[in-house]
Amino acid sequence: MTGLYQLFNNIHPLPAQFWNDLHAGVIEKLLPRKTILVKQGKQYKEIFFNIKGLARAFYYKNDTDVTSRFFRENELIIPVNNENIELSEESTLIIMPNDLLSSLQKRYPELNLVMRTLAEHNYILSEERSYAMRMRSARERYEDLLQSDPQIFLRVPLKHIASYFGMKPETLSRIRAQR
Fold it and tell me: In the chain, how many domains are there?
């Protein structure tokens, strides 16, 4: 739980009793690659913290699988109704029930600040992605990801990266070949 502790406490320190209460109500689980954590359209009663591994959010558009986000180590995975979430690698997750988090937010009001800050961060990431898809060329989006997270190209099939960029795999191959 070290990564989760750092994530939360970097936003606002939480008391030791909070961590005891949280630890008592969560499950740490190792899950195999290709596990579907979340199915589009279903309500989920938990959020996940990714200790080790990689997951991706995706949806279907005209029977095409479109990747919308990657979840790396030390990130929260928060399900939304219109997306699926699949593990791209064998992953170790902390599973936190929503009712536990709600209960902890009542007992530890400072957790509200932590959760709001994390929600704002996710909103900003979503807005940045939306802006990049509208305003930046495919080559620029590729170069940005290559610079910010070069390892992703070793961890994720190129077809998922291409769909994340909003392009066909052949287009991504041409961009990579021109480099």
Answer: 1
Q: What is the largest CA-CA distance in the chain?
A: 56
In 3D space, the residue among 165, 123, 125 whose CA is nearest the CA of residue 142 turns out to be 165
CATH number for 35: 2.60.120.10
Count how many Cα atoms sit within 13 Å of the Cα of residue 83 in the half-sphere of its side chain.
15
Model pTM above 0.70: yes
Closest by Cα among 5, 10, 12, 22 to 112: 12
Query: Which ranges of 84-157 does DSSP label H, i.e. alpha helix?
Result: 98-107, 110-135, 138-148, 152-155
Query: Could you list the residue range(s) of the whole structural domain that residue 46 is in?
Result: 2-110
pLDDT in tens, 149-171: 999 999 999 999 999 998 899 99
Question: 13-57: per-residue pLDDT in tens?
Answer: 999 999 999 999 999 999 999 999 999 988 889 999 999 999 999
Residues pairing with 155 in the sheet? none
